[in-house]
Amino acid sequence: MRKNIIAGNWKMNTTLPEGLALAKGLNKALEGKSLKCDVVIGTPFTHLAGVAAAVDTARIGVAAQNCADRDKGAYTGEVSAAMIASTGAGYVILGHSERRQYYHETAATLKAKVALALANGLKPIFCVGEVLEEREAGKHFDIVDQQVRDSLFDLTPEDFSRIVIAYEPVWAIGTGKTATADQAQEIHAHIRRTIASRYGEAIAADTTILYGGSMNADNARDLVARPDVDGGLIGGASLSVEKFLPIVEAF
Ligand code: 13P
What we know:
The protein is of the alpha/beta class.
């Protein structure tokens, strides 16, 4: 059975003391609760080791928001998958639309990052999603298919089983505009069929597919109630315990 996951993506927010306080606050809020989903928080690189040490990592998984496309060496400023794994983090968010758009990450770069993440024992949370013009032109199914195919179709079935997909329509990110539960269900089911066409029905059925884009306490319940929506990747609402906790409890 696939896992339900609620993952926070803090993006470039919080200083180290603020991030540690947020992580500890969440850890405390979840203490003694029996949850119907796994919880992950995606922090800046600088916070990973501190956050991993401050929370119960059996209850809260820790994610980086990116990793280098090279193993190691003379790549000033880069952070490798091995370095991330050595902090105690277990996940890495890859292919976020902000990285594709602002840092020009290509399908080929992302393919290299996925391979390095997997080789170092990290679970990639791989983001796909269309921009508004693509949705309006009815191209969203083709766009997400292409993104999945280009970076994730050359893996072994074992490696693919460790991937989490996050469908994040770019027009819904940080805009307060959410995909409807119907829109999310429709495209999640489509992504699952695409996965099945390459890796088979059993692996597709076991793949966790998250929705991301202005998910909050008000819309989370409706979204995760859909059969192919296995949780969420949350930006803004992951920056406070009061806003994040009700999403974690939406299942
Ligand atoms: P918001 O929840 O702020 O829209 O961000 C979504 C997102 O990009 C998560 O990765």
